[in-house]
Amino acid sequence: DSGVTQTPKHLITATGQRVTLRCSPRSGDLSVYWYQQSLDQGLQFLIQYYNGEERAKGNILERFSAQQFPDLHSELNLSSLELGDSALYFCASSVGYGGRGYEQYFGPGTRLTVT
Amino acid sequence: AQTVTQSQPEMSVQEAETVTLSCTYDTSESDYYLFWYKQPPSRQMILVIRQEAYKQQNATENRFSVNFQKAAKSFSLKISDSQLGDAAMYFCAYRSSINTGNQFYFGTGTSLTVIP
Lengths: 115, 116
Fold this sequence. Notes:
heterodimer; A: 4-stranded antiparallel β-sheet; 0% helix; B: mainly beta; 6-stranded mixed β-sheet; 4-stranded antiparallel β-sheet; globular
């Protein structure tokens, strides 16, 4: 158990809908990262927050957005869902960002299925 | 952006034997971190081993060791005395050490089968 929690574990929804994925980082971690893993693919970095502020953005679609709240939990919002958005979405957390020695700990993932 | 390449989509090994998974990467940075993650059927990402680019000594963790060739930008994972529980998808990952987003760049993975 990495200490990172993600809810829900599974999510099934229809095209055009909007969903919210939630992540709680490990106690003491200020950075949260979101990754998308499509079928049989590696993980693609979406976005990172550090202490409530966006720090880095990867290949995140405009239909997707995220935020990190004062209690440090983060939410990833996916809207106007398409079949291709079906994937496993991972959250990871670390103490800080940049520099040396900041391990990232991954949550168990949320499996999103768009039908 | 940095790219990570795993050229072996699938590998198999006999139980108790040794297997080596390959990984190459492309970067212009001189200081960075490299990782191997294991993803079993449960889909949990499990850190296997990490290597700091500024360290010449290859990292080892029990039965897992790496062969880090910085000039060749190569980072292979050797699993010795393979066990059935080693069967999983293995991902190589790169992370910059400069003060930016600190995100991982992952390869596409190698699926390892362990044959009893």
